Amino acid sequence: MTSASASAEVVLTENLSLTGFLGISASNVDKDAYGDTASSSDSSAEIDEFEVDFLFSQDKINAQVDLNYLGGPGDVELEQAHIGYAVSDSFSLKAGKFLSCIGFESFDMNGKYQYSAAASTVYPGHHTGLAGVYSGDTFGVYGSVVDGTWSADGDPDNLGYEVQVFTSPAEGLTIKLGYATEAFEKKLIPAVTESYADVNDDNKIKEREIKPSSINPGFDKAMINLWVSYEVDALTVAAEYSSLEDFDKKGDDGDAYMLMGNYAFTDTFNATLRYAHVDADWAEIDEFTISPRFVISDSVSVITEYRHRDYDVGADEDLLAARVLYTF
To answer: pLDDT, tens digit, for every residue of 5-17?
Structure first.
């Protein structure tokens, strides 16, 4: 994933440092009515996320532990926890809980060019397993075996897999092609016995067995993700395409697209334009986003955004938002 901003590490010891961010935002979402559903307007002001990442490095060994607070009482989670080993200058391994390699847009808000994730952002998240990466001068390969590419259910009997090839054939140009998959096994509702009144026999109380029925017919969820970015001077542009295969138990497929451009007008002001489209069996969405960012200091910025979404069912949605982001 790409990053729109960099954090300065706070050195704790010779081998241990930390980095992180705090995001506080206010937003309003207006939804237009469709069918029998009334229009609505929802506003919020909240702590989006406070994350602290501990980084350890010694010789060929490195480790990372990310703690994440999402604003609710006791709402603290272990987002990442993994250990890595550099087999050579170009090949390394890591094991533990880590983020998927798939997708252009950053998972964390401090890496995004704008306030929100695009409608086309349907990437896997964090999962637990083993990954290896080879990084050459202009070409690299990443592969992982995890407990569930999307489900992350801790079950080693239903593994997920990711592979990605990446290259930087010219200065400022990055190309990444990835594939992710996970097999969801068929699950049944267990048989149960229930009592009932038999209306054909003077309402006598009898028992009958409810036989198992499928709650998940079993399917192989997968996606192909290709993105290209190019940075030159103050301009960054990117394009992304995702092919979505068997994305739910009904076998729904789809395609997702994203185009993005960010331009730094000055050291203290930049803006992002983004277009996203989802054409899938479960939804068709068109989205346009404009997101100006004001850089207050090396650590503080204010990200604003206007986003408009159109849905194929005749509804549309407008988002206005602002976030104060502090990184360290």
So the answer is: 656 789 999 999 9
